[in-house]
Amino acid sequence: AIALRRGATPCSLPLRRLFSSEPIPDRKVAILGAAGGIGQPLSLLIKLIPLVSHLSLYDIAGTPGVAADVSHINSKAEVTGYQSEEQLGQALEGSDLVIIPAGVPRKPGMTRDDLFNINAGIVKSLCTAIAKYCPKALVNIISNPVNSTVPIAAEVFKKAGTYDEKRLFGVTTLDVIRAKTFYAAKAKLPVHEVNVPVVGGHAGITILPLFSQATPGTNSLSDEDVKALTKRTQDGGTEVVEAKAGKGSATLSMAYAGAVFADACLKGLNGVSDIVECSFVQSNVTELPFFASKVRLGKNGVEEVLGLGSLSEFEKQGLESLKGELKASIWKGMKFAHEN
Ligand code: NAD
Ligand code: LMR
């Protein structure tokens, strides 16, 4: 018997869930690169998402240990681990969402583009397998350089005849998370109430936080403060690379960001309304074929790519200055996919 708490209404959340006629769908999430610096904490966080019924972990090394470890957590998702390339099909089959953090990270002194030569091939081969084994899955690309790896994925899917621009996402959530953290601290606002859109791409000046649209707004920041916050957000990845001094780049904050974005994608797939996150997607917002901006997520992935809104003069300048680099990175990715 269910006793109603004093004051609880019949439509309070637990009861609504209990009597809801709509079952929560089973969702399989695959992580490719699951045994890496990002992959391990990401596997942990995805295991905790109640919407996930099957967590499929794939890496070229170390997967059995990670899968055994994570599988002991008493949350809903069943965990399976796959290691050899022959098992990649099994790892992917039936996936609703595939997250890719496979690839090498930066060391001090490197740019994200310096990772291109190794990571382009990794993303290409993993996306070739996605086209074959789970062509309808949403794909979240974390591997750098995101500004090039997302166009590579798009070209691989086009070649395979499976491309659906609504299902391909470059994960830029870490830029949003950094912008929120730095803004809240500087403006002395409660960080959990803060939101800051970040547009453009995911490298250096292509990362453009829109502090003029931050909520809650503030009058306490000078133009110099906004410039410094912008620079810190753009250099956030490098700040971590330098602090780790040769032991890789952001893994823990990235795993958190990856889980936030994956959760949003799953909610969208399940028909939850008004799920909006920034992501690097195929876009008409500017003249560039891919661009990060706010995206409304729905049952088919991208439901709507939202426009930029009104920008400050400083942000307008930032937008114009990022286009050259972003365009070159996009073309580099497309060219690689065509030639290889
Ligand atoms: P890592 O070296 O710790 O882990 C990478 C993992 O990928 C390793 O376990 C490796 O075995 C695996 N791997 C390599 N080739 C593979 C393949 N063909 N198939 C499956 N797995 C494969 O690196 P990391 O710190 O986890 O970073 C991974 C990537 O994420 C890097 O490219 C990094 O630059 C990027 N990154 C992106 C963001 C972002 O905001 N988008 C943030 C942080 C890091
Ligand atoms: C980040 O922003 O932390 C990642 O893109 C990793 C990196 O190389 O900076």
Automatic annotation (TrEMBL):
Sites where the protein binds substrate: R106, R112, N144, R178
All residue ranges annotated as the Lactate/malate dehydrogenase N-terminal domain in the record: 28-170
Keyword NAD part of the UniProt annotation: yes
GO cellular component, one term: mitochondrion
Residue runs in coiled coils: none
Keywords: NAD, Oxidoreductase, Tricarboxylic acid cycle
Assembly with partners or alone: Homodimer.
Official protein name in the record: Malate dehydrogenase
Organism expressing this protein natively: Apostasia shenzhenica
Upper lineage: Eukaryota, Viridiplantae, Streptophyta, Embryophyta, Tracheophyta
Gene of this entry: MMDH
